[in-house]
Amino acid sequence: MLGKREGTNQTVSAAPAENPQGKGPLYKVWRFIREIVIIVAIALALSFMIKTFFFRAYYIPSGSMEHTLEVNDRIFANLMVPGPFELNRGDVVVFRDDLGWLPPLAESPTAFENVLSFVGILPAADEQYLVKRIIGMPGDTVEYDAAVGKLKINGEAIDEPYIYTGNKPSDMEFSVTVPEGKIWVMGDHRAASADSRFHTDIQGGFVDLDSVQGRASIISWPTSRWGTVDSHDEVFANVPDATSK
C-alpha cells in the first residue's frame, strides 16, 4: 500500500510483511510428506487393530472346501468368533495347525510377507492354518453309518447340501463323541479333505477351540466370487442338544 509521511509530500511504500512461518516451496513439500506419513501411519494402525480384533485375510490353497470355497479364494475371517459371538455347528472356521496336520513350512517367510502379516493383509507368516466346517460341538456324538448314507449328530440324521457334488458324506464309518473344549471338523469336499476323520491318531482328530482363529465370513477375491460364507443353520436345526455326560 502507498502512503504519505505526515507533514511531507514524500510517498513511501510499506514493506511486505515477512512470512513468520517460512512457508516457501520446501515447507510445502515437507507438509505434503508429513501428511502422507500421517495417513499411512493411521492406515497401518487401523489395519493392525482390525486384523487383531475384527477381521483377518486368509488364502485358500486347496480344494478341501469346494465348492463352498474354491482354490485361490481370498476370505475374511471374523475374529470375534469365538469371543463376543459363539461358534455353532455348520460354521466354517479357520484354525491354527497346532496339531501338525500339515507338513512343515518348506521356506521361512520373507521380510515382505512378515510386513503384510503385521498389517493384516496376510495371516501370521510363520504359522499354518486350515479351513473346515464344524460338524460336532463339545458333547456331540457324530457318526456315519454307510447303511443310512448320512451323518448323524446326537442320533439325528442330517442332509448336507454343501457337500461336493458326487461325494458321500464320508468314505469311512466312524462314531465319536466330542470332548469339552474341542470340535470335530470336516471339509465340504469329503473325498479330498484330510480332516478330523484322518487324524484320529492325533488327539482323536479333535481340534482345540483355542486354536480357532475365527469364522470365515466373506469371500473377498476374486470379484466374481464376492459373497458371504454360509453356515447352513437349517441343516442342524433339528439336531438335539448333546446328552450330558
TrEMBL record:
Which Pfam families would you find in this protein's record? Peptidase_S26 (PF10502)
- What EC number(s) does this enzyme carry? 3.4.21.89
As for membrane topology, the entry says:
Single-pass type II membrane protein
List the PROSITE patterns.
SPASE_I_2 (PS00760), SPASE_I_3 (PS00761)
Q: Name one GO molecular function term.
A: signal peptidase activity
Q: Give the top-rank taxon of the lineage listed in the UniProt record for this protein.
A: Bacteria
In this protein, which residues make up the domain named Peptidase S26?
34-221
Instruction: Give the stretches traversing the membrane.
Output: 36-59
What would be one Gene Ontology cellular-component term for the protein?
A: plasma membrane
The protein's matches in SUPFAM superfamilies, at most eight in alphabetical order, are given as: LexA/Signal peptidase (SSF51306)
- InterPro entries found in the cross-reference section: LexA/Signal_pep-like_sf, Pept_S26A_signal_pept_1, Pept_S26A_signal_pept_1_CS, Pept_S26A_signal_pept_1_Lys-AS, Peptidase_S26
Main location group: membrane
What keywords does the record list, in alphabetical order? Hydrolase, Membrane, Protease, Transmembrane, Transmembrane helix
GO BP field? signal peptide processing
Q: What is the annotated localization of this protein?
A: Cell membrane; Membrane
**Where is the signal peptide, in residue numbers?**
none
User: According to its UniProt record, which reaction does this protein catalyse?
Assistant: Cleavage of hydrophobic, N-terminal signal or leader sequences from secreted and periplasmic proteins
Residues annotated as the enzyme's active site: 64, 132
Q: Which family does it belong to?
A: Belongs to the peptidase S26 family.
NCBIfam families on file: sigpep_I_bact
Spell out the protein name for this chain. Answer: Signal peptidase I
Which gene specifies this protein's sequence? lepB
